[in-house]
Each structure stands twice: as structure tokens, then as C-alpha cells.
Amino acid sequence: MQGKRQSGLLSNKMDVNQAKQEHLLALKVMRLTKPTLFTNMPVTCEDRDLPGDLFSRLMREDPSTIKGAETLMLGEMLTLPQNFGNIFLGETFSSYISVHNDSNQVVKDILVKADLQTSSQRLNLSASNSAVSELKPECCIDDVIHHEVKEIGTHILVCAVSYTTQSGDKLYFRKFFKFQVLKPLDVKTKFYNAESDLSSVTDEVFLEAQIQNITTSPMFMEKVSLEPSMMYNVSELNTVTSGKESESTFGKMSYLQPMDTRQYLYCLKPKPEFAEKAGVIKGVTVIGKLDIVWKTNLGERGRLQTSQLQRMAPGYGDVRLSLEYIPDTVNLEEPFDITCKITNCSERTMDLLLEMCNTRSVHWCGVSGRQLGKLCPSASLSIPLKLLSSVQGLQSISGLRLTDTFLKRTYEYDDIAQLLHLLVLHDTGSLWRKKQHLR
Amino acid sequence: MDSGEDAAQRPLTLDITVIGAEEPEAHIPSEAATISSQPNATDTLFQEESIDLDAEAFVSPQDDSGASVSVMDKLNDQMMESVMISDSPNSEEDDVPIDSLLEQAEDKQSLDSKELEDDKEKEAKQEEVETGTLEGAPEARGEPEGSSFAAALVDKGEAEVEVNENDSTKEMLTSSHVTAGTPTSDSPEGQEMMLEVGEAAAADAAAEAAKEEPIPVCTIFSQGMQPKTLVPDGFQPTLVKSPSFSCGANETPNKLAPLVCQPSPSLSKFFADNGTVNPASDFFDSFTTSSSIISISNPNAESPKATSAAPPERQLSSGSSTVPSTGHQDGGTPTAYFSTAPQDSAPKPVVGPAEPAATMTKLQAVFSGSDDPFASALSMSEVDRRYDAWVPSEETRRVLISVATQQVNPVYVERDRLSMPGLKFDNLQGDAVKDLMLRFLGDQAAMKRQVLTANSVEQNFLGLKQLISTKNWRAAVDLTGRLLTAHGQGYGKSGQPTSHTTDSLQLWFVRLALLVKLNLFQNAELEFEPFGNVDQPDLYYEYYPTVYPGRRGSMVPFSMRVLHAELPQYLNKPQESLDRLHSMRSVCQKILANLEEGLAEDGSMMTLTQENRQASIQLWRSRLCRVMYSMANCLLMMKDYILAVETYRSIIQYESEQSVQLLSGIGRIFLQIGDIKMAEKYFQDAEKVCQEKGRGQAQETAVLMNKAFVYLSQNNYAEAHTCFSGILKIDPKNPVANNNAAVCLLYLGRLKESLGQLESLVQQDPALYLHESVLFNLTTMYELESSRSTQKKQALLEAVASREGDSFNTQCLKLV
């Protein structure tokens, strides 16, 4: 390939001790990112052209081409890493550490220590901490270290070598290799609270997670899953199932180009035991955390988890009013029934009084100001109500008032549901309505 | 998410933690933020949380006391920083160590006169560069022979000058390159002009010479011409003419181009051989007269000479009424140089005034030897039609029709519709290997380096092929430059009308292909520029009814079109490449459709024999495949993996015998992305095809290779190594398996073994292993192994020097 080749060899231009004395041992460190596949550049001609079969012969003789398909650019030849590259949070930092005896004498009791200094801690990465008893000239001590990077920012690999010369001098030197760990992903989350289904009391929560690849290379998202907290069950909404086949919403190839963003959607349902106490789920709740596994060149792997995602549950106040039944179609100026469910979300028992106030379009039928009786904490109560609408178009059902006679506190419920009254030709009496989720 | 909501929401700061990291201590700072930023969320139904990894949130290291911190601070400058990966093929130019180059240049100058012929030539070039610098390209500093990109840099600098200069200054610029020579001119006015300019140039040159080196001697000529002693003052201003211009200048219908020719620097030196007059025609004859060799070496290249020398063929293959009279070849006859008058009809040998008749007889003698001109002419025209077919754009087609129907004389075709190529540089030559040897191994060792140069081979196609096959591509580029100069498309001729021949376009193709092979993309782009979309009317045979009577189709070889289309992708313009490739693909498809409808390739009504039709369909299918390959490669470079994979897959249906390679290749693309499951799926498909084909060595190798790559991507280097070794049991000489096995050993912590393996490979079979990729791996391991890597790299350099040509990419040795 074109381009100036460097290796991943870590260069350390200043060795603190080197200035003072020559050492018998040399320490070299190379970051082992995955090797890359050599790409060749096909330039072809036809037999009839001036070079005849020369170009194709040259390409066939080139060891890096694919035999039989020389015009295929991506070869099979592995080349060692060309530079240090970037390292990202969650990836594994691997490095080759080689201590070579450059001198012509046998060196004894060699101890090589590799530590990684991060901004918060110091980790020992050496495979073994025991000393090598002797090292002959032109021989090496090799070590390959691995470390999963868990912090961003500056990291320093500190390699220390101590040894004894033939004359019995104990010598010691250190080398430092600094690198920056960068952030690979940008994650944004957003919660959507679904209004309760008519049949259930509890709410589903939808989580949209935007994950952006902020590295410079394409990234294959092997796994992006939501690990829910104990209160929730999660279902992933990132595949479309048709028949037996389920297809990813992201198409066949699950990779992210640099700076590309992808949205993942999850639906969280409170577990039944928590759902019973729906009124209790309020305030800040822990939803869970995202677990992200990605791979890049030749399977270089990275993994991150977000911290616990938290959500502010919608406040229902002390008393919650939800709809249990509402008809599909209503006729203009014809009474219809709805069923309301009233739940006591507070910690105390309430004694409730229901009032119904007519609005411009909605007319309640029945007695206003009726007693509903006592309602214990977390208990709920269903009440059928009758009303009629006098105006076409999109109308809100409003005007319910609940008063807690113990505390003399009144709760107002407006915009409980919206009705779309469509006047259909030939059928003037019937109104089509569409319930829309409120809130 | 829509932004309106975003604005309304309050972002919470979270942090990303890694599994296994001690969470509490890792994100205390930001957790505080999380809690504090919980607002009265009663009305905020949606929340957006941006998860922010904030480096600042961390405190500085608390351990190791102040000592370690101070060490860290002290090291801040010296420490390695992570390097951004850049894919730009051109980015290396930033890396050119200009200082070292200049240093090198100084060394060079101290070596002066005892140098070999080659070195003198190189110095000549160095001088040219300096002249260029004086002319106003101060940035173009560097040593031309220093390294491949030093040359590129210089060329670029020069190119900039050319682009910026207007015509007149360009004339000045180029004329100043004319350092020595003798006036030879037929056109008095031209001569006068040239003399004036030339004198000025001579003054310049003399000034240069005074303060610098002896004037370089031209060594371009044939082998016999050994360099003679330098006579620094023995030069005089001269007009050097391209042979094709020798036919005089009156009758020029529109004085568009100045008749003064501006010879390129090195050519001027060529002609100025120690004060001896070497008329252009001599040089030209040096390869025209050896046309017998041309026809042997390039039997398929339909020789225009054949056409002009064998009138019967012409009459057979066309109904054209214009039968050129070959008799009155006369250098003195004034004709417009771009006229297609019969006397110019032997397009390549544009014969100089010196000995036209002699040349002509020689040419005729060559072609009279052919056994059966009729039969060969017939079959030739079949093959010609098949290979040359192309569908020009509507506009070009109209021009061609009007030329064919003699409504328009080609002379009157608008100038801006013509391609007017010319060399844009000619100071490329150099041998980076030798330079490195000079620097690291000394003069003695460098003396031993023997490579073919443009001078050491015959000045014809045969010599060119010799240079290409010995991998002396730089020298080959030089030779194409000379041959094109002789054709009148030399340095500075860009923008001047010229007539093309089959051979001249083949030369252009070879030159541009080699430039691309040498990674000199900018240079290639510059020289491709006059060809535009490779669709000008003068690039079609129909434009030259007298020269190529009855012949139709594109003079531009198909491979050159592919090259033209591929080039922009190497210059960070992949979209342009794709556009060009798409239009090529549609032409190929059109031609295939025509053939299937029973028409000729270009859609004309013509009855083809079944045999011919089949041959044609086969050819155009393979060409379509070639274009598809280019598209897929380009998409891969663009990292548009989805489309790349799709395109490679679509090739399988045309080239089913390549399906194993293609399926494996697609698998490797998936591995590159990181999608190992898909990769395995494609590898399984490849294996299935292998099983159908039976268990050959190639199949087993392919299967094992793919397995090894899967292990590799699972970080299982031990198993990968086993697989690569398995391939070596079947095919011990497999270079890829050998190299890859060695790479695996390194990842297993077995540096010495790995090194030993690669080293012995390079020693035992240098032909296979003196390859860029292997050497790069080897030198990287040397660097890792000991502090004495430089000596070991120098040993590699010696190995390279004894085997490789001047096109060797020395960067992989990592000596500089």
C-alpha cells in the first residue's frame, strides 16, 4: 500500500537513565493491534496492448495478489500494525514487550515489570513477576501484555527492567510510553412514557438510545442490549419479524460508519408484581443499562456499559384517573358510556366526591357530586359514566373533578381523552372518533 | 429525535463504565451531576440524557507522589502520542523529511564529476529542478532522485508552476531549459523566435552553469553513445524540434499553436550532445527504423504502418476512396502538421527531413515480408473491430460522422474538442534503492547496483518491455517520455493539436499505467488531463479516414479507459471514479446488448459470423467484469461495504471460476468490518464451491486460509498458526501462508521464531519474499528485536539491490 509505513513500535525518545549510562539490555515495546490485510493495486492490460501479458504476469508473480482473481484488491497477506493507532475505551490494549541483550555478556537476574498508570490507578500488567535467572547475548525475554481499557484519558505504560551484570552491578532502568484513550461512542437516551393501555393499569416505557460512532473506523455493532433493572421486562424493537424470518431494522449489515448514528428502541414493561403497585412507581426509577459490544478490524473487540439509566416517572399526583373503556364510535348528540378508573396513589385513605362539569362540547349525564366512598392507598375503583357530545371535530373530554373530603382537596381532570368526530357522508349520525393518547 | 424536544429537555450527564471497572470510584463525580439535574419532571414527559464521558471529571493521579507526576510532566513532550490513522494515499507527502533531503542533496553535489553516466543525468535533473525554482516555484525544493515522493513533490511543484503560468511565460520557462544544442529548423520565423528565446535561455543557463555543475550531457541516445568529456561552454542556443513538426508551417489554417516547439529539459540535453548536431530525425530514426522489432515485439498491436504500406488491405476493409499516394514522401513539402494529408500517413514514423525516402523503403521492406497480407488484413480487421469498439458520446459521434462523410475537414474541428496531450514532466528518473545504498552502504556498494535505465535498452517497444519486465518502471516511464516526444507529444506540447496513432496511445497507456503503479498519482492525473473524458473525436479511428481508412472505433485501449476511470480514487476522489466506471459499464452493457440483438458492437448493421459474435460477446463480458471489479474495489476503498459486497457478488455470475476467490474475498471484507458471523457464512459458501470443484491443492489452501482468518479474528492466534502451517504442508512455497504464520508467531510472543522464519524465507527464495509486505513485517520485527535493526535492514537493502528494479518501494525497509 501507499503511504509511509511506520510500525506500531512505541518510540520512547527519552530514557531517563540512558543519558547517564549505556545499558546492556534494550527494551522495546510494540502495540499489538490486529494485523491488517495487504491491499494491492491492480493495473491491468489486455494481451493486445503494448505490454502484452507483462502486466498480468507481474501481477501473478506478486505474492500479495489473489491467485486466479488478481484484480481483487483485498489480499490475504497480513501486515503488522503500521502505527500506534487509536485506542478506545472498552478495547483491549495489547502490547509486545521485548527485552533484548545487546551486549556480549551474560546478564543475570532480570526482572521486567510493566505497569499501567492511569489517572486514577496503577495496574501491574506483567504476566509473571519472577525474575529470569540469566539472559545470554542476542537473546530476548518476550512478554505480551493485555489490558482492557476502563478509563479514558492519559495512560502511561511504565516498563521497568532491573538486572545484574557479570561484575555484580545491579542496574535498573525504566521507560515510559504515554497514550491517550479516547471515547468511542456517543450515547444519548430518551424516554417515552406510553399512556396506559386501557386494560392495564401500568405504563410501558419506551427507551430510544442513539449510539454514534465517534471513532475513525467502521464499527460492527455486535450487541446493543438493554439490561433492565429488576422492576422491568424489556423487549427489543430492533427487528422486524415477518413469518419466521426476523430482519434487523438496520438492514443486512450491522456496522456503523464513522460519525454515523443509529437509534435503538426498547420497550420496558413493569413486572406484574410491580405493576400491581403501579401507583408506587413514581419519582426516579432505575430502568437499566445499555450493554454495547462492537468489533472492528479483524475482530478487534470493544465493550462498554452505560451507567444505570434513570427515568422520572410521570407524576400522577395523589389520585390517578385513567380510562378503562371508551366506545369506538359515537354518534353526535347521542349519549355514550365510558368507564373511568380511579386509583389512590397516595399513602392515605381518601374519601372521594365526583363532580362533572359540562364544557362547550361535552355534556355529562347523571348526577354530579356523588360520593364514591373511601378508597385505600393503592386501591382503585371503576365508575361508569355517560356523556354526549354536541360538536363535531376534535374534542376533549374534560370537566371531571374529584374532591377528597378528608383534606378538602380537589383534583381536576381535563383532557382525559380526545375524540375526533368525523361526519361521514350518507351516515350523518355516526361519528368516527379516534382516541389519542394524552400526555 | 426532533430538535424541538431536545431543546425542551434537560440533558443529564451520565457516564459510561466498563464492566468490571470498580464502578463507585469511577463515576462519583458525574453521578452527582445526574442526581442534581433531576428537575421537577412533572411536566417533562420526555427526557434526553446525553451520556458524556468527561475526562476532566477524573482527578489527577494521586499515587506515586510528586516524583512520578513530575516525571510524567517532563515526558509529556517526548512521549509517543497516539497517531491518527489517515487513509489518504497522499498524506505521506507531509512526511517527507525535507531537511534530510536537502542534506542528501548537498552530499550529492560533493560527489561531482567522477560520477557515472547515470549520476550525471540525475544531476542534470537536479539542476532542472533548481531552474524551476528560480522561475517561481520556490516551494519545489527537494532532490529529484531522493525518493519516490521527493520526486512526486518536485513534480507537483513544477506542475503548479505550469498551471499558474500563462502561455507566454510557459514558453519562457521551458525555453530556459534549453541549455545546449544546435539550431535546426525549417521555418525561418520559428527559428528567429526560437533563437531569441534560446539566447535568453542560454544566458540563463550559462549563469547557472557558471555557479554550478558542468552542463549535463545528454545520454538518452542509443547504447552506442557513450558520454563524452564535458565541455561546459560548448553549448549554444538551439531550436530543438519535435520530428512531427518538421513538415513545415505555412498552410496553417488558423494560427492556433505557435510553431515553436518547446523541448523538454532532458530532451534538450539529449539533442545537445557535446556540441554535435543530432537532428531530431536521427533520434527518431533510431527507433523508427527498427520497426521490424516493433512488429515482432508487439504482434497484436495493429501497426499503422501496415495500413499505410499495404494499400490492398485498405481497399478491402473499406470503401474509402482516398488512397494515399505513398510515393511523394517529402520532408520539404509544406503541410500543416496536424493535417491528415497522405504524406503524413505513416503516423508514427513522422520522418524528419534527413532521410525520408530511406525510411520509407525500409518500412516497406519490413511489411512486404508478410505472408498473406489479404488474409491477415481480413482477420485483423475482425479483431480490430472487436477490440476497438466503443460507443462515443452523441456529440463526438456527430463530429465523427461529419468527418467520415467528408462534410468537415478534421482541420476545422474545434480545437477545444480535441485531446492535445503532452508530457507534463520528464524528470522522473531515479533509483531510490541506489540512493539509499549511497547513504547507508557507501559509494563502493552503490557502484555495484546495476539496473537497466532508459539508456541501456533499445529505444523502442522491445526495450520498453524489457524495462517493464525487469521492474525498472521509472526507467520505462522515461523511455515512454522519449518515444512520445519523438511523436510530437513531448514536454510542453500539451495544448497543441497533434494526431494520434494506435502506437502513440499505447505509449500513453503504458506511461500512465506505470505512473499509477509507481503511486505517482498526481503526475498521472496531470498527464491524463488533456484526454478529458477520453471521448474527443480525435481519439477515434474515424477521425483519420486517410490514415486508417475504413477502421472504426476507439484508438484508446480499453485498459487505458479503465485506468482513467480508476485514477481519481487514488486521489481522494472516489466519487469521480465511480461516475466514470458507471458510464464505462453502461457502454459495455450497450455493446453486449447490440451483439445480442444481432448488430455489430457499435450498433451498426453488420453481419457477423456466429464465431465472431461469440468471441466478441466473450471479450465484452470479460471487459464488463473488469469494470465491475474496479467498481467494487473503488467502493471498498470508499468503505461503502454494502455496495462493495453487492458488486463483488454480482461478478460471480460472470466469472464463476473465480467464485471461491470472490466469496473468500467478501468474507475477508466482513472480517475487516468486524462482522465475523457473516464472514463465516461466506467462508462456508466458498467451502461448498470448493467441494463441488473437488479437492485440489488450491481448494484446500483456500479453505484453510479462511479458517485461519476466522481464528485470527477470534484472537486465537495459536489455531490460526496451525491453519497457516497446515497450508504449508500442502504447499510449502505458499508465500502468504509463510508470512501469515510468522505474523501469528509474533502475536504469540515468539518473536525470535517469527523472525527466523521470515529471514530464512527471504534468504532462500528472494523472488517470492522480497515483497513490500514481507519486508515491512521483517523490518518491524527487527526494530522490535534489538537496537541494531539498522544493520539488519541494510543487509536487506543489499538483497533488494541485487534483485529489484528501480520501481522498488524503499519505504518498506524503514531505513529513512
Automatic annotation (TrEMBL), chain A:
<comment type="similarity">
    <text>Belongs to the TRAPPC13 family.</text>
</comment>
<protein>
    <recommendedName>
        <fullName>Trafficking protein particle complex subunit 13</fullName>
    </recommendedName>
</protein>
<dbReference type="InterPro" id="IPR055427">
    <property type="entry name" value="TRAPPC13_N"/>
</dbReference>
<dbReference type="InterPro" id="IPR010378">
    <property type="entry name" value="TRAPPC13"/>
</dbReference>
<feature type="domain" description="Trafficking protein particle complex subunit 13 N-terminal">
    <location>
        <begin position="23"/>
        <end position="181"/>
    </location>
</feature>
<dbReference type="InterPro" id="IPR055428">
    <property type="entry name" value="TRAPPC13_C"/>
</dbReference>
<dbReference type="Pfam" id="PF23643">
    <property type="entry name" value="TRAPPC13_C"/>
</dbReference>
<feature type="domain" description="Trafficking protein particle complex subunit 13 middle">
    <location>
        <begin position="185"/>
        <end position="314"/>
    </location>
</feature>
<dbReference type="Pfam" id="PF06159">
    <property type="entry name" value="TRAPPC13_N"/>
</dbReference>
<feature type="domain" description="Trafficking protein particle complex subunit 13 C-terminal">
    <location>
        <begin position="327"/>
        <end position="419"/>
    </location>
</feature>
<dbReference type="InterPro" id="IPR055429">
    <property type="entry name" value="TRAPPC13_M"/>
</dbReference>
<dbReference type="GO" id="GO:1990072">
    <property type="term" value="C:TRAPPIII protein complex"/>
</dbReference>
<comment type="subunit">
    <text>Part of the multisubunit TRAPP (transport protein particle) complex.</text>
</comment>
<dbReference type="Pfam" id="PF23647">
    <property type="entry name" value="TRAPPC13_M"/>
</dbReference>
